[in-house]
Amino acid sequence: MERNKRKIGILMSVYMGVVMSIFMTITGVCVGMLPNVIKGLVPPQAMLLSLISGFFVSFCISVMIGFMVPMHKVTQTVTRNMDEGLGKRCIETLISDVIYTPAISVVMVAFAYMSNQRQGNEGPSFLIMLIPSLIACFIVGYILIFIFQPILMRMLMRKYGPGAGSRDGSMNKDRQNKKNK
């Protein structure tokens, strides 16, 4: 049982890391760089490179946060006196968003800013890139966490949670056969 909880936590960190990284990279790069590409301040290939490299950087940050911060314990501690429902879920989502989004956004914008500087591109200042990106990423991050976290958790609980096996707690024959192959 404890092993399955740990497995659920690890997989949840990885899955949410992938989801957050894909959408946050697209959001951050488009908000932070697209206007500058349109104005001719940043070449289009820099935006493409930022999307690709940004995903990998963002994914690493997301997974590191997921492994370092026990999100379930943090949200349970903060919301322990709240009744189950939409209000509690909104607060849990906000907590996750406040933990993940600033770290991802700051590192992503810093990465894009330094890439532009290294390539000799005269782009906007770091703050001009950061502020709109951070605002957009907070909004997008909140929506993503609100939608995907419960979906992924249900999926993982069905597979690894209590009752995932048969009534006596063991795996059913089909799952045992798949595992043995």
Task: Map the helices and strands.
Layout: H1 2-38, H2 44-68, H3 71-79, H4 86-118, H5 126-160, H6 173-180
Helix pairs in contact: 1-2, 1-4, 1-5, 2-4, 3-4, 4-5
Q: Short summary of the structure?
A:
With 181 residues, this protein is mainly α. The protein has six helices and no strands.
Describe this structure in words.
By secondary structure, the protein is mainly α. Helix content is 81%, strand content 0%. The protein is built from six helices and no strands. It has helices spanning 2-38, 44-68, 71-79, 86-118, 126-160, 173-180. The longest helix has 37 residues, at 2-38. The chain is elongated and about 55 Å long. The two termini are 23 Å apart.
What oligomeric state is this?
single chain
**Class from secondary-structure proportions:** mainly alpha
Shape: elongated
Query: For the report, how would you describe the main beta sheet?
Result: none
Unreliable segments of 5+ consecutive residues = 166-174
Mean pLDDT: 82
Helical content stands at over 70%
Number of helices: 6
Topology, number of strands: 0
What Rg is obtained from the alpha carbons, in whole angstroms?
20 Å
| Straight-line distance between termini | 23 Å
Order of helices and strands: HHHHHH
- How much strand? under 5%
